[in-house]
Amino acid sequence: MTALPSTVPAHAAAQADSGATDRGTALRAAMRIPLIVIWSGLSYLVWLAGRTLTTGSADQQLRWRHRFLRGWSRGVARLFGMRIAIKGQPPTAPFFLVSNHLSYMDIILLYTCLDCVFIAKQDMRRWPAIGFLAHAMSTIWVNRESRRDAVRVLHEIDRAVGSGDGVVLFPEGTTSAGDGLLPWKAALLDWAARREYPVHCAVIHYRTGSDYPPAHLAVSWWGDMPFGPHAIALARLSGFDAEVAFLPSPVRAVERTALAELAREQILGHFVPMVTPERLTS
């Protein structure tokens, strides 16, 4: 899950806004945003009904949540005009997976093809509506400022995998423009290292058409980009390409730093920059 990352150059944010305004279609966004809200609200009611019917069976509730999230996320992806390409074989739950992190759309993309829960920053739980829904979907919250909280999170990961869930971690801890990988936070890989549990790796990439702002501005959400205007600008696009590549060989190590290095090397080996660092700062 995302949080506001480091500062984006002011001219880059302005370029994203002006490009979306000039080339985008306000009517498209005006239709899509309400439809996404309505779809999400109705889907949540359906989820509540199914949860009530499966009360008393943890396995049935888990299957119902997975089925619901796949359907909801595919609907949201379609409403945003996300054209999804999946490379490789998505892991079957239970699993532990790490990925690069570019946007809040990463979560939608991964939900369309994985049965999973996400590890997210505690701050997101306070977001209106989104935080409530994420909590209802069993998101594992982490307070990165508290070392003691890491122990609780490791127990939550253990419980999730033990119940048959997949767990997804963004080790960068925040989103980037897609010019490279940010430094990784290895602490939450301790769970997999202690158990020598296989860690699957995925690489996410976005593209927009030539008539629209580039994906590192239009789809990636980073720096000081406010969420609301960015989501509206994204909804103005006719569509965009979203690719997730699942790498074939999970990695293992008995020490979390070594495990993080192995997984990061795998992702770097398949990572395609969405923008060069020079263009990002020019």
Short description:
The chain is α/β, with parallel strands linked by helices and 282 residues long.
Rg over C-alpha atoms, rounded to the nearest angstrom? 18 Å
Work out the oligomeric state of the chains in this entry: single chain
Strand order of the largest sheet: 1-7-6-2-5-3-4
Please tally the β strands and state the result: 7
Task: Give unreliable regions as ranges.
Answer: 1-6, 10-24
Largest sheet: 7 strands, mixed
Whole-number mean pLDDT: 90
Task: Please provide a written account of the structure.
Helix content is 48%, strand content 14%. It has 282 residues and is an alpha/beta fold. The protein has one domain. Strands 1-7-6-2-5-3-4 form a seven-stranded mixed sheet, with helices on both faces. α1 (10-23) runs parallel beside α9. The chain is globular and about 50 Å long.
Summarize the helices and strands and which ones pair or pack.
Blueprint: H1 10-23, H2 26-53, H3 58-80, E1 82-87, E2 95-99, H4 105-111, E3 116-121, H5 130-136, E4 140-142, H6 147-162, E5 166-169, H7 190-195, E6 199-207, H8 215-218, H9 227-236, E7 240-246, H10 256-270, H11 277-281
Parallel strand pairs: 1-7, 2-5, 2-6, 3-4, 3-5
Antiparallel strand pairs: 6-7
Helix pairs in contact: 1-9, 2-3, 2-9, 3-4
Relevant terms:
single chain; 282 residues; alpha/beta; seven-stranded mixed β-sheet; 7 strands; disordered N terminus
